[in-house]
Every structure is written in structure tokens, then in C-alpha cells.
Amino acid sequence: MSDRPNVLFLMDDEHRPDVFGYAGNNVVRTPNIDRLAETGVVFENAYTPSPRCVPARQCMMSGQFPRTCGCETFGEDLPPQSMTFARRLAQYGYDTVAAGKLHHTGEDKDQGWTQHISYYGGSNVNRLDEEAEERYSHIRRKWSDAKEIRRAGVGHSDVGWKSRLDEYRMQGACNYITDRFLNPYYDREEQDRPLVLKLSLSQPHYPYFTTQERFEYYLERVDPYVDEEAFDHDVLSHRRVPVRDDDQRRRDDRKGSVSPREVRRATAAYYGMIETVDEYFGRTLDELERVGEDLDEWIIVYTSDHGEMLGEHEIWEKGHYFEASAGVPLVIRWPDKLKPKTVTENVTLCDLFVTLCDLTGVPLPDDNTLDSRSLVPLLKGDADGWDNEAFSAYGDHCMIKQDDLKFIHYPDNPDVLFDLADDPGETTNCINETEYINAVTDFRDRLAGLGYGPDADPNYSDAGYAPNV
């Protein structure tokens, strides 16, 4: 057996950081993730490096912010053979196996994973027939946000494609576990090399569908966001979906609004999808124990790529820098080495690169452009000297959070400052208040140093974090 720890990396998609039992939600049923949280380290202020799927995942894997790694929007990918944490651990003897969604869209679909269990395969093609591309470009475009909400409800696993894919991914991970640790056909183990096993699911990403039983369970138990007001900002209220009762909807344009009952139904379906994710993670944990593995000897990481607004501020889905969208759940469990605790410092998914190298004893790459800090001091209760900053960006707009202050920059729109200590609901823009003048000046200086804003540093290369390994 290897003397280095195995790693189980559990990840879902578009999971709000507050919809868990361990986070105080008394409605949702997440016993398996709650068990990890109760015996692990919970990060209360973890953030995505980008509030959209593709760049968020590329940044997490590379340990670099969007502008550093060149993945700033949905259609961009890491260059082939990029240095990801999967590749780095593989270089130092780990088998790196991924079951499910990676979301690498370029020629290198695996980016360091030595085995990939997925429905998806192949590589990008340089399309030469522009007429054909235009003719078929409408295929599989998503519904409008309002239609996503109105169509939410019951969809069994043999109907909802995300649920079907996720079950396949979970079963693939379980099959791999059996083959690796038991191999009943040849009656031999394969434990001489350490393992990183990632199970990456698509739920609870929209469309919002769940089973009949789960939908009915949550329908009258959820507390949906139906009395929200849009934030007074052109971009932070972009794609809002107003909630209107039936009389209002008869007077208004029905296409752009939803009813309180439709919001409730979509919320119930979202909760049901979360319970499905939790079940699949639980079945994977059970399989490891079934083959004789001691989970206390494994490093287990659970997170999501970004959050989901779920109607808060009349916004759905992702892409905004409100806590519900930019915040992510993050739990790291290793009872053999780490005591359970809650960490309140600001961290990002980019920090997982250096953290996994630190925990597994793998040297960092010589390249000094990582926007990644080791979370190990925080995991051990030492926050002294921690650079208490989180950063997230998409395209040319971004968010910087330092301590309890969150600064949001959109070109050609007013900057926004939230003081989350006094305004956890993010309803008041403090950008012009006298007491925050110095903080705003510091944020704008940092904005330029990170390569954004009107005074962006033309020589930007990385975030400039000092190594703490």
C-alpha cells in the first residue's frame, strides 16, 4: 500500500453554499455531505474564481485566476498539456482518475487525468463550413430563465439527461473502486500507487428536474424567494425574472415573469436535485468502505464550481457576484491529520492546487504564476499572515473581497461595495459613503494590479501571492 494519502474529490455544479443541513438549512436532506462537514474542515467564505462553469473549472484545475490562465469566458480553455493539479500529482506517482464532468472544451479533454470515465469524449474540430455552422447553431440552446422556472418539476432519471449522466458517473466511480481495491476477477489489489479519484456531477445545475417523491417532499417545505427586489444596478439586475401573481401577469408580459407557485416548484426541484447529488456521493463513500478502505485515511474534498441565485434579488442561475452565485461550499476532511473546525477566512477554489500538493507532499511546479495559496495553515487553525482576499472574474468584470468588504467592478457601470458584516443580504451599495473612502481607494489600486479597470497594469502576470508552503 502507498505511504501517501489517497484523495477523493467530490464536486457538483451550481450548488448554493447555504443549501445544506450543516449550513443551517433545516429542509434539505444532505446527510452524506453533512457527515463530511461534521468531521472535516468547513470553509464558510469560499469563492469561485469565476461565476460561470467553464472558466471556474479551468481556474480551479490550473490554480490560476482567469486572466492568468487565459480562460476568461465560457468558450475558452486551457492550452493542451497545461499544468493542472491532476497532472502535477500524476507526475509524482498518483493515478488520477475522473468520473464525470471536467468541462475542458479544447483538444486536451483530460488535462492531466490519467483515466476519464464519462459519456463525453473526442476533441474540438475546426469547423470549416460556416454556412452549416450557422444553420445548426440554434441546436440545444437553453430556454430563457423564466421558461426554465416555469418548466421545472418532475423528471425521472430515465428522462432528465443530467440525472441519467450523474448516475452513470457515480456507478463508473463505484465500478472503478471495486476493480482497483478488490479486482474480483483476478483476485488482486492495485494499491501500490496512491490515487486521486474525482466524482464530478452535473446536478443541481438547471434544468430543474427531480423525482416525483423528492419533488412532493420539498414542494410545501421550501421557503422560496418570492418577495425579492432587484438590486438597483444595470448589470447586477441583468436577466432578472420578476415574480407576479396571476392578476399582474394578465396585465404584464407573461414571457418575462413567473408566478410565486412556479418559483416554489423550481425551488423544490432544485432541492430534490441536491438530495440526489448527496445520495450519489454517499453511495461512493459506501463503496469505498465496502472494499475495506478506511475513509479517515483519505483526504476528501467536496466543493462546487459556483452557486445559484435561485430567485434571490429576482435573479436565477449564476454569473453574478452576489454571495449565492460567487460563493461555493468547500469541505476538506482528513481525520487522521486534521481536526474538525470552521474557517472564516476568504479563500478560492484556485487555492486547492497548492493545498493538494502540500497535503500529499508533491513539490510545486517551478513556474511561479500560481494564484494559489496553501490552505494547510487554515486547516490546522493558523490564520496568522493569511492574505484574506478572494477574487473572481468573468470577461472584463470582477469581484474582490477582503475581510468583510466586497468590491465589484463592471466597466461603464458604477462600482459596487458591500459591507457583509452589516449587510449580509447585499442590499446597500456603500461605494460613496465617507467611511469607506480609504477602502475604495485600496480596492481600485488592487483592481489595477490584478489587470482590470481603467488603470489596469499592462504588465500583469499573476495575483502576486507569496508562497506559503
UniProtKB/TrEMBL annotation:
Every copy of the Sulfatase N-terminal domain together lies at: 5-362
Record GO terms (molecular function):
hydrolase activity; metal ion binding
Q: Which InterPro entries match?
A: Alkaline_phosphatase_core_sf (IPR017850), Sulfatase_N (IPR000917)
Coiled coil residues, start to end: none
* Hydrolase listed as a keyword: yes
Query: Looking at the record, which segments are called Disordered?
Result: 242-261
Q: Which UniProt keywords apply?
A: Hydrolase, Metal-binding
Annotated signal sequence is none
- This chain belongs to the protein called Sulfatase-like hydrolase/transferase
Organism for this UniProt entry:
Halocatena marina
Lineage from the top down?
Archaea, Methanobacteriati, Methanobacteriota, Stenosarchaea group, Halobacteria
